[in-house]
Automatic annotation (TrEMBL), chain A:
Domain Siroheme decarboxylase AsnC-like ligand binding positions: 67-133
Catalytic activity: siroheme + 2 H(+) = 12,18-didecarboxysiroheme + 2 CO2
Enzyme class: lyase
Source organism, top-level taxon: Bacteria
Protein name: Siroheme decarboxylase NirG subunit
Pathway where this protein functions: Porphyrin-containing compound metabolism
TrEMBL record, chain B:
UniProt-recorded name of the protein: siroheme decarboxylase
Domain Siroheme decarboxylase NirL-like HTH, residue spans: 7-52
E.C. code: 4.1.1.111
Domain spans labelled Siroheme decarboxylase AsnC-like ligand binding: 64-151
InterPro entries (UniProt xref): AsnC_trans_reg2 (IPR040523), HTH-Siroheme_Decarb (IPR050684), NirdL-like_HTH (IPR053953), Tscrpt_reg_AsnC-like (IPR019888), Tscrpt_reg_HTH_AsnC-type_CS (IPR019885), WH_DNA-bd_sf (IPR036390)
Superkingdom classification of source: Bacteria
Cited PANTHER family: SIROHEME DECARBOXYLASE NIRL SUBUNIT (PTHR43413:SF1), TRANSCRIPTIONAL REGULATOR, ASNC FAMILY (PTHR43413)
Lineage of the organism: Bacteria, Pseudomonadati, Pseudomonadota, Gammaproteobacteria, Acidiferrobacterales
Pathway assigned in UniProt: Porphyrin-containing compound metabolism
GO MF annotation list: lyase activity
Length: 147, 174
């Protein structure tokens, strides 16, 4: 990543223009031209610096449900269980963490009912209890991630 | 305000990303049978209603040089948790701050903060600063560093088939 890539990441974290030529408009702000911005965004996506360029939805306002869940996976079974959990399309991301609760994943489902079903399905498939930690309150953090 | 079918088609059409072309809204509109202006107006409305939280780059922290992330969980007395959560959320390195239910006896923690840093030492130094500045020494906490990331994609919110425009008439096979 060079200085222009960093400027792109830092400038385009929110507030992408809603106009006919949004990339041209955003590029002007960064000090490059439209074609270069498009080229660089393509590369940042291909290099997987960005996972996406587009909207981040509020799952609950879409009628869906989002929850954080954890498993206590016995030593030696981690790979097997990870494969099962990652196979569920509702699992948005999954991290191994250093704790007895060692697998943490986010479940995003189209409805609250589907969330409960997905949890039960994961319990059946893995033979482990899923600890479900739905969000009760979100404390506002400004988006200040600096690349 | 209820989301109608057109909103849902639009939401599905852009859930994995906006087209990287000079007129992205026109292109999306063409796919789902809306005009460019209508796409723009609907995205604006979805933002105003908070259905779209933000619109732009979705960064993979690791690839941006933030190699370490810790989920720090806290056991805060119920009456204090909102105030403590709001205080923690003000630190720039705290990227998420949520209250979640305890699962006693194995899991007594009710406040979650995500802290990103260049490496583990950096994360721990930021955490020490947060505890010091907020006087949180008495709140029990655990630091769960991530070891591996298996999967990180944007969540799929609506089934992809929603994104299809009404089916065109089938061409006769030649």
């Amino acid at each position: 990543m060079d200085a222009i890539d960093r400027a792109i990441v830092n400038t385009l974290q929110g507030g992408f223009p809603l106009s006919e030529r949004p990339y041209a408009e955003a590029a002007r702000e960064i000090g490059i031209d439209e074609a270069e911005l498009l080229r660089r965004l393509e590369r940042l996506l291909a290099d997987r610096v960005l996972s996406r360029f587009g909207p981040m939805y509020h799952a609950e306002r879409l009628g869906g449900a989002l929850t954080l869940a954890a498993l206590r996976v016995p030593e030696g079974e981690f790979e097997r269980v990870a494969e099962i959990v990652n196979g569920f399309p509702e699992v948005a991301h999954n991290y191994a963490r250093e704790h007895e609760f060692n697998m943490w994943f986010v479940l995003a489902t189209e409805t609250p009912e589907r969330r409960a079903e997905a949890i039960q399905a994961i319990e059946r498939a893995t033979g482990l209890r899923v600890y479900d930690f739905p969000k009760q309150e979100e404390y506002y953090v400004g988006l200040r991630f600096e690349a | 305000m209820e989301l109608n079918q057109r909103d849902l088609r639009l939401i599905a059409a852009i859930q994995h990303g906006l087209p990287l072309s000079p007129r992205p809204y026109a292109e999306v509109g063409e796919r789902i049978g809306l005009s460019e202006q209508e796409v723009i107006a609907r995205i604006r409305a979805l933002q105003a209603r908070g259905v779209i939280k933000r619109f732009g780059v979705v960064v993979r922290h690791h690839e941006c040089g933030y190699g370490a992330n810790a989920m720090v969980v806290w056991d805060v007395p119920n009456g204090d948790v909102d105030e403590v959560g709001r205080r923690f959320a003000r630190f720039p390195f705290v990227t998420l701050c949520y209250r979640r239910p305890r699962r006693p006896p194995e899991w007594p923690y009710n406040l979650y903060t995500m802290i990103h840093g260049r490496d583990r030492a950096h994360v721990l130094a930021q955490l020490a600063g947060l505890i010091e500045k907020t006087g949180a020494q008495a709140i029990a906490h655990r630091v769960l560093f991530s070891k591996r990331r298996f999967k990180q994609r944007g969540a799929q919110y609506v089934p992809p088939e929603t994104a299809r425009a009404p089916a065109p008439l089938k061409q006769a096979a030649g």
